[in-house]
Amino acid sequence: MEYFAEFLAGIDDPTHRERTEEIFTWIKDYYPNLEPEIKWNQPMFTDHGTFIIGFSASKKHLAVAPEAVTITYVEDDIKKAGFEYTKELIRFPWNQPFDYSLLEKMIEFNIWDKANCTTFWRK
């Protein structure tokens, strides 16, 4: 994914970099209407100028940030999957298969819930 090439190049572990690129490609394939953007040095996807989902990488996990409202919406799924999370992000460990169904649920919710949103973040 060319748009995020600089971010991806900054991920030292090649398997982590490859997985992150696969996730970004999956998002573009399933949600071609979402725009890839870099803001605050973080890759994210937006829809009509509003934030949908963002990412950051660390040694132990890929953090996915969908906004607090969305974390609350999928909290039971997060707990069932056993992921660590805060009110703003979910940590997807590198040593486990990536949970695309949870990612899809968050993206779908944000697209639906923010369909008429005119700001970047929810108010």
UniProtKB/TrEMBL annotation:
Residues 16-111 form the YdhG-like domain. Pfam families: DUF1801. Gene3D superfamilies: 3.90.1150.200. It comes from the Bacteria. This is Intracellular iron chaperone frataxin. It comes from Ornithinibacillus bavariensis. The lineage of its organism: Bacteria, Bacillati, Bacillota, Bacilli, Bacillales. The gene is fra.
